[in-house]
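Before relying on records like the one below, remember that each one covers exactly one chain. Contacts with other chains, cofactors or solvent are not represented anywhere in the record.
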Amino acid sequence: MTNLKAIDTAALAARLRWVAYAAARKLGVPGLLAGGLVVALVGAHAFYLQPDGEHLEVERDARTTALAALPKPGQKAGDGGMTLAQVQQLRSSEQAYSIFQILSQRGMERKHATYRREVEVKGKLRRLTISIAMSGSYVGLREAMREIADQPMVRIEGVSIERDRIDSANVNADLRVSLLGPDT
């Protein structure tokens, strides 16, 4: 470190001016602007982005620790329903039977049903889509749809409701339901 005192700063400044002049002649104005942009980006990364990245990493570690301290969600079923593990053990036909049972408990008379089976998630899961034509009271249909929607791995894809007369409580409905789960 004693050699740093021996450096002639005036000569160094003159050499740097000469290098800047030679670069300006060789690169031109666009080259100097591009070089200045590169130097500015390196400076921004070193003084602004890198320290902020370290701050984000510290914050992420703190949040990970806070999340690990939270209690794990339970596997309990709510309101007489089934847990996800229990539903995954069911076959699609048993799930479909439970949907038909819910509809009949709510007073809906099934006219006919069509089925479509599709393979999803690289063959690990199967989707069974059931289109059900039925008739019954509007209140019974609403209650049945609420109960069906509360089941895990079941989704109501669409519903079409028709009435013969506007003041009639009875409706004709087409309900499309999808069941997702393993099918062995």
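The longest helix spans residues 9-69.
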